[in-house]
Amino acid sequence: MLQKKICLLGAFGVGKTSLVRRFVDTIFSDAYLTTVGVKIDKKLLTVGSEQMALILWDIAGEDDIAAVRVSYLRGAAGYLLVIDGTRPETLDTAVSIQGRVDAEIGSVPFVALLNKADLEEDWTISMERIAQLEAAGWQFRRTSAKTGAAVEETFQELAALLAR
Amino acid sequence: MNARLSLAATHAPGEPSDEEQKARLAALLLELARCVDPSVAATLPSRLEADPRLDAMRRVLLERERVALAQLQEKFDDPKQLADAVGSVLPAAFALAAAQDDRLGLAISPTVERATQASIQKNPGRMVDILYPVMGPAIRKAIAETLEGSLQSLNQALKHSLSWRGLKWRIEAWRTGSSFAEVVLKHTAVFRVDHVFLIHRKTGLLLAHVARDDATTRDPQLVSAMLSAIQDFVRDSFDESASGGTSSGGIDSLRLGDLLLWCEEGPSAFLAAVIHGTPPAMLRTRLGETLGSVHDQWRGALEEFSGDTTPFEAAQPLLRLCLLSQAAETHRKVSPLMWLIPLLLLGALGWWVGQRIIERRHVDAYVSSLQDQPGIVVMNAERRDGKWLVSGLRDPLAAQPEALLAKTDLDPARIVGRWEPYQALHPAIVLKRLQATLDPPPTVILAQDASGIRASGNAPQRWMEKARAFVQTLPAGAPKVDLSALKDVQDPDYLRLRDAIQAQLIHFDFSMPRPAADQETKLDTVAGYMRELVQVARDQGFPVKVTIVGHADATGKDTSNLALSVGRAEVVRSMLRARGVDPSVLAVRGAGPLEPLRPGASEDELSMNRRVSFGVSTGD
Q1: Which UniProt keywords are given for this protein, alphabetically ordered (chain A) (predicted)?
Q2: In this predicted complex, what is the ipTM?
């Protein structure tokens, strides 16, 4: 079986954990997030004819106090950057995280998730900025933890990226 | 450079117009070359001597180079300056050489070894100082592990040395020739390795996992990633490497109640063993060896690992060797069913005891009913081989024990009687014995009374005689048998025949010993009676005696009369004998004239007295 380590990153409160909760298998409680700063989930996928297990490292949200532990990023084959569409500052955090990840483990595939797509009318995020980042090679997906929209597809895409 | 110079030299003659000029230029260049490489001077002719102007020109043209060359020369010639120059480039040179391949390392390693050796010989203390940060923690760790192991065995040894189990182990140690500590350890080091995870260090991905068949596991991939995360967490949070610990850092062992997690770290992967109980230090060694083997065999696969765990499936047998265990010999949890067994046993025991008590009661009742019987003495009643053995003395005429047994609730097959025959003197038994032996006629009643046994009714004379004789033979102390109330009765046939015979008289003529001629018929009749009497006596079993009494009349002398009377009796006997009467019952007696029928002296009276009379009696 093929296994890949995937990190789930993003600013505090962007809904990383709730975003994937419905789509993954886990045996650990959310308490790990607050104590150890990471919680492990698993997503089984089929890419082509092969089974792939994405081992998701849901890393505690970044805020002013706690920076992401870089040691948790080590060995990641890819990552998901979660951004709250209603809070523009989370996009800045995502950019900063992306920069640090790039410096720490090199260039690995990632997908940026614009979460809370169900509240798209409340979005305050700059579409211009999104377009700039897309031009720089970022891939954005609009997801919703509430409806589950596009989450499964995102996993599938990321898996396809990694299998290449 | 040589080649180019020689080329110039060969082309020079091909252009005759400037030949001189070219030759000079060539010589100049040659000179330049000589300045750069002095060895050229040795092989090519110098033109300096040929043309002194050249020398001057050279000085003008090459002033700066000459100064630079001189400085270089000076640097090479002065060892201090040379060392300075080499020293400044050496680190960079080493770095470059090491980056290219291993040759530099190979080349300098003997020198380094020799240098280290020399340094240790010269000043061992310095090397100790250098190595202390590395060796110190390692030694501490080894000592701690050893101490932990020995403390554990010491505790157990103390705990078990005085118990019954300890005694058993001492015997085992003595028998097997091993030390007591070894035996204690063998029986008490209870542990079980449930899971072994081989985890890629960098990614935290699970490379291989083995588990005991009965061990439950949740998703091992998740567990291994979480373990890896926790390792990172601990490493980051406590920054062990910075505080002087070993460079590997991380969690070495983690205990949660009975559950123990041991991690063995390698460069590319680590082993995590989930253990129940307290494992011996040997397990740590085994984990280390296994991890070493994994690194040896899968070095390439570990370095290039990018998520494909297929190559590591082959490592499972190796990991399986770490699934060690030591079973506890005691403290097995008793299932509730196990309690049922003693309860059932207890119930069965109670039932059995109850049965025995009931049986005992029945036996006691049976024995006492036997004791109540005259002629039975019970000496012993005991259980033997699942049966009751009742033994004692029993008069053969006493009641049958089997008949008494049938009246009880006991199973006759479970009771065995063993009776010694004896003769009882109990009145009831003596009564029975009298009845059995004497066979009394229906007219006789034998009964037990306060003083003994009393016979009443009437019986024939001969039976009474038999009864008297038997009573005489009874042993002393036997109950008294009173026969005095019995009345004598005679056989009617006997009485009739006796009377008939005694009524007959055989008459004789005067002084004649033979009966008168007319007496023949009478004799026949008497003989007939007698034969019948003998037959009756024989049938009835009593003796009978007929006395033939001869008489004479009172005339003549007494002596001759006596002889005549005897003679008459003898004659009659002979005549009766001749008529078939058994002579053994016949006796003769002569009465002479002494028992006359008539006392008178008349002829009739005298004739009446000349006779033979008969007396019949029983007995001897």
Answers
A1: GTP-binding, Nucleotide-binding
A2: 0.88
